[in-house]
Amino acid sequence: MAVTISGMIGRSYFAGSPVVIDISGLEWPSASPFTVVRVEVKYGSQTVGKFRADTGGQKSVSFDISSALRSMWSEYDYSVELPGGVSAGTHSFRQYTLVLSTEYIGDDGLFTISAPTTAAGGACIPGRLTELERSVMNITDVSGLNGNASTKPTASPERVGKDSMTSVLSITQNGTVTTFYAAGAEQGPQVLRDRIPYTDFIFVNRRGAPETCSALTLEAMDIDVKTQQYSRVERPKAGPSRTLTAITDGIRHSWAMSSGLQTREWAEWWASEFLAASQWWMLYEGSHVPVIVKPSKSSTTIYDRSNQAVPHVDFTVTLALEG
Predict the structure, then answer these.
(1) CB within 10 Å: which end of the chain, N or C, has fewer?
(2) Contact, 25 vs 59, CB < 8 A?
(3) Cβ distance 165 to 182 under 8 Å?
(4) Residue 103 in contact with residue 1, Cβ under 8 Å?
């Protein structure tokens, strides 16, 4: 068979976006009831994904291999990139290859497995493109982002606290790079610094890279202690008796926070990017600790023509530590 692999190969992708490969030029015996194509995605010598399709005798088939590409990064530990001796974190592109084989029943009635064919795949880094970016902006390669891996609005500067750390994200030929800057650094992004301290966060944006932001802490902190009670039999000298014993399940610290008053563009970023992230760390007593961020409301109103108030996004932060 003169099989051809085409489509989204030989390029650099975000592992979370659809990556579709097209296989064409398939030839099958006319009487074969069994025409199967198998594709393996390999990262080095490791198989990270297997795909199978019964073509029904068709001469072409397509696969979305993005699930295999995501598995190449599933065990990545972002905490190694947090500030504290590390000034920058780089996600280097990871190369993958494709191995193709076919299975069918020949005209002689014998089951036939073709010799596997190895083809060049592409390269990927963590993250994803939104559907709007893929369609309207027509981005099929990360190079289409012009070197910028940040998702923050650019029409107006970011508002941060007086001592807040900032970051710059870029895409190079090697991968995605995050560089952190202290408040007094001469370099770094242009920001609008408030005169009061904010709470600093690092989160993984949809480009799959750590990014900074800072929020206002409202005057509220809750400590939640969950306990379970059970009866325990005591046996003192005077005779058996029962007492109640409590076991705590753990203590949860949580804070009410807000993005502060923002423009519509920045409020949308807070709601659709920061709140939609999967990993966050908060600067707490000098260390970046993992936290869970949840919206204060089930829905956030960014724009309401009947209400001209400047939007803000409120949320709660809970320590993701137990013990």
Answers:
(1) C
(2) yes
(3) yes
(4) no
DSSP state for residue 79 in the 8-state scheme: G
DSSP string, 113-178: EPPPEEEEEEEEES----HHHHHTS---SGGGGTTB---S-SSSPEEE-TT--EEEEEE-SSEEEE
> 50 Cβ partners below 8 Å, 6+ apart?
38, 39, 40, 41
Task: Provide the pairing of β-strand 117-125 with 12-14.
Answer: parallel
As assigned by CATH, the class of the 4-125 domain is mainly beta
Measured CA to CA, the distance from residue 72 to residue 14 in angstroms comes to 12
Q: Are strands 210-234 and 175-181 parallel, antiparallel or unpaired?
A: unpaired
Domains in the chain: boundaries: 4-125, 146-319
Q: How many residues does the chain have?
A: 323
pLDDT tens-place string over residues 28-47: 887 788 899 999 999 999 99
> Which is it for the CA torsion 284, 183, 262, 78, positive or negative?
negative
Alpha helices in 230-291 (DSSP H): 264-269
Q: What is the pTM of this model?
A: 0.80
How far, CA to CA in Å, does 10 sit from each of 98, 99, 139, 148, 211?
Answer: 11, 15, 15, 21, 28
- Kindly report, residue by residue over 122-173, the tens digit of the pLDDT: 899 898 888 888 887 767 677 667 778 898 998 899 999 999 999 998 888 7
Q: Estimate to the nearest angstrom the gap between the alpha carbon of 40 and the chain centroid.
A: 24
